Amino acid sequence: MRSLTDQMGRTLLVPERPERIISLVPSQTELLHDLGLGERVVGITKFCIHPEAWFRSKARVGGTKQVDLDKVRALVPDLIIGNKEENAQADIEALEREFPVWMSDVRELDGALDMIRRVGMLTWCTSQAEALVTGIGQAFATMQPLTPPLSAAYLIWHEPMMVAGTDTFVNDMLARCGLTNAFAHRTERYPQLSPAELAAADPDVILLSSEPFPFAEKHILHYNMLCPGTPVHLVDGERFSWYGSRLLRSPAYFSGLLAGWTV
C-alpha cells in the first residue's frame, strides 16, 4: 500500500497498483480511458457518457450525487475516484469507510493539470499523464482571447435561472476566452437569478450551456426577450466544465466559438 494525499488534502492508503477502479465523475472517467486504464476501470456512473464504449459496457453504480453502495460493494473496488463538487459528501463518507477514495478539487486549469498528474501517478500512468498535461498546456497557449473582453452570463439552469459564478472551473474557462463573468461579484459559486437581475447585469453575451440543464434552440427567444439586443449562444458545456483529457480539444472549440463575436 502507498500513502498519498488527494487534492482535498486528505491522506489515504491506496494499493501499490490499483486494479479495480470505480470513477464517480464523468470527466475523470474519460481521463482514465485516455490514460489507457482499460479493464482496470470496473465501474462508472450513469452520467459517464464518454467514451461511448465504456458507457455501454461498464457497470454503473448510480449517479454522481446518488451512488448505490451495494453496487459499489459488488464490484469489490480497490480504488474509488471522486470530486468534491460533483459528488455528495454523505456518499463519499459512506464509501471511504470501506474503500480507498481519492478526491479531486478542481477550480481552474492549473488544478486540472495537477489532477491529471496525480491520477497518472495514482494509477501508474505517469508518462501518459505528462503527455496529456503537455498537450493541454500547448493547446491553451495558442488561444487568442477576445480583445477587448466581453462580459458574459453563463447559464447552467433554466427554472430556476442559475449561472456559473466565481471560484468555478467555468469562470476560469471564461476568463481564458476573454470573457468577463458578469456575476463574478456574487459570493455564491452558482447564483440563482431573477429575470430582473439578469437584465440589470446587461451582459454583452448570454451563453446557454448544454449541461447540466439541456438548453436548446427553443430557449434562445426566452433570453432574447429578457435582454433585448444581447446575443444569446448555445455552447457545449463539456468544453467549459469538463476538466480531464477533454481539455485537449477545448481551446480549438473556444477559438471557433469566439471567432467573429462583437459587442
What would your notes on this structure say?
- The structure is a single chain.
- The chain is an alpha/beta fold.
- It has 2 domains: 104 residues, Rossmann fold; 103 residues, Nitrogenase molybdenum iron protein domain (Rossmann fold), CATH 3.40.50.1980.
- The chain contains 11 helices and 13 strands.
- Strands 8, 9, 10, 11, 12 and 13 form a 6-stranded mixed sheet that branches.
- Helix 1 links the parallel strand 3 and strand 4.
- Helix 5 packs antiparallel against helix 6.
- The protein is globular, with a radius of gyration of 19 Å.
Task: Give a quick set of tags describing it.
Rossmann fold, globular, alpha/beta, 6-stranded mixed β-sheet, 263 residues, 13 strands
Give the overall average pLDDT.
Answer: 96
CATH architecture of the largest domain: 3-Layer(aba) Sandwich
**Broad structural category:** alpha/beta
What percent strand?
A: 15-25%
Termini separation: 56 Å
List unreliable stretches of 5+ residues.
none
Rg of Cα set: 19 Å
**The biggest beta sheet, please?**
6 strands, mixed
The fold-level CATH name of the largest domain is Rossmann fold
- Count of separate DSSP helical elements: 11
Specify the CATH class of the largest domain.
Alpha Beta
How many domains is the backbone divided into? 2
Global geometry: globular
Give the quaternary arrangement of the chains. Answer: single chain
SSE order, one letter for each helix or strand: EEEHEHEHEHEHHEEHEEHEHEHH
Helix percentage: 25-40%
What is the CATH superfamily classification of the largest domain?
Nitrogenase molybdenum iron protein domain
The tally of strands reads 13
